[in-house]
Amino acid sequence: xxxxxxxxxxxxxxxxxxxxxxxxxxxxxxxxxxxxxxxxxxxxxxxxxxxxxxxxxxxxxxxxxxxxxxxxxxxxxxxxxxxxxxxxxxxxxxxxxxxxxxxxxxxxxxxxxxxxxxxxxxxxxxxxxxxxxxxxxxxxxxxxxxxxxxxxxxxxxxxxxxxxxxxxxxxxxxxxxxxxxxxxxxxxxxxxxxxxxxxxxxxxxxxxxxxxxxxxxxxxxxxxxxxxxxxxxxxxxxxxxxxxxxxxxxxxxxxxxxxxxxxxxxxxxxxxxxxxxxxxxxxxxxxxxxxxxxxxxxxxxxxxxxxxxxxxxxxxxx
Length: 318
Description:
Elements: H1 6-13, H2 18-27, E1 36-42, H3 50-65, E2 67-73, H4 77-89, E3 94-98, H5 102-114, E4 119-122, E5 137-139, H6 142-155, E6 161-165, H7 171-183, E7 187-191, H8 197-210, E8 216-219, H9 222-234, E9 240-244, H10 248-256, E10 262-264, H11 267-284, E11 294-295, E12 299-301, H12 306-314
Parallel strand pairs: 1-2, 1-3, 3-4, 4-5, 5-11, 6-7, 6-8, 8-9, 9-10
Antiparallel strand pairs: 10-12
Helix pairs in contact: 1-2, 3-11, 4-5, 6-7, 8-9, 10-12
């Protein structure tokens, strides 16, 4: 899928030539540098609203930077790697990519850099990006975020947590649950198929019915948290739901008390920084992070501060 960029939008709206487009772009705050093409390739699964936020951030930076953003996604590691190869073949100006399954991605991501195409990583693969020759990384350290969640569970007086992993083989999701267990020992994993939400609901319900000692359900994405709320009701459980990541509905659920808290990694910012950093590298030779990951989280959103992000969530950017 191809994102809309300012130059194309303005050209479509104007009967004038390139000069008028440039003037209008500049007036709108859009870069006047030549249009560059950036492939933005993620492991997003269909229907996961988290990636809508990432994409909106990427599109906002693309609009500002006069970038032709080519967004594609596939949750299968081999298929995602093939998308990287396709971007190499097209000789794009830059690639932003997630590395949730680094072993599958390594060969083609490394090849992209060796071909002279700058690559940045985001969201997944914080332990792997440097070894692939990637310029920078934008996201949270999932082990640190998981440990913070476990500390919060301890502080809340939780007894036993069920950590719901919606995608097997995703190193970041595993790190979240492992991090939580490192600071909250009574953390148990359950694997579900995140692309089949009815089965997710049924699996969580069954586990809660089987083990009434579970008093916290820790999900790893906003849609799964909202589904877990239904599972708690179905199981007649007293468990509370906590989660990683947000969307508009999740923020409302925190406000209403249906969900206790969320760990926020600012997905909009991840998408924005990934695109903007490639533009900066191409036009001015800049790199961000000084060889270290640029962390966008974790931070907690709960009833005490949800009002501060509510309006942004309403805009579809938090």
